[in-house]
Amino acid sequence: MSEPIKKVSIVVSKGSLEGVYPGLIMANGARMEGIEASLFFTFFGLHAIVKKKMEKLKVATVGNPALCVPDAMGFPMPTILGAIPGMSAFATHMMKKEMDKLDIPPVGEFIEMISDAGGEIFACKATVDMFHLKPEDFCPQMDRVLTVGEFYELSAGSQIIFT
C-alpha cells in the first residue's frame, strides 16, 4: 500500500478560466483533505492573483480543440469560430453560469478560501519581473514572490503538479 500524500505544490501557468480553475480546485480539495497545498503562479497563470485581472479571466476559444457547443458533450467548435468577436466572452459567460449552478466560487473568492484554509499562494519572480509587477498589484492573499529555486526548496517532499 502506498503512503498517503501529505503535501502538494501546484504550478498554474495558464491564464484562461479553464487553465486556472483546475489548480484552484486541486489546492482547495487538498486542504479539505488535510493535505498541505501551495500554488505557484507563473506566466499568464499569474493573472489569477493580480487584482486587476483575477475576475476578468476568459475561456480560451482559439486553439482549444476540446471546446464544444452547446455544452462540453456537444459538437466540437472549429477553432476559426473562436476568433469571432465576442465568442470568448460568450463561452466565458456560459462556463460561469454552469459554475454558479455548482456553487463554484469566482477566482478571487476561491483564492481567499484556499489562503484561509492554510494554502500558500506564490508568484514566480521571473514572471513578476518580466511583467513589471509590484507588490501592490497582487491580491492580499499572495504570500510572496519566489524564484524557481525557492519554489523547489519549499516543495521538498511535495507532489509537484502542473496544470
UniProtKB/TrEMBL annotation:
InterPro entries xrefs: DsrE2-like, DsrEFH-like
Organismal lineage: Bacteria, Pseudomonadati, Verrucomicrobiota, Opitutia, Puniceicoccales
Xref: Pfam families: DrsE_2
Protein name: Peroxiredoxin family protein
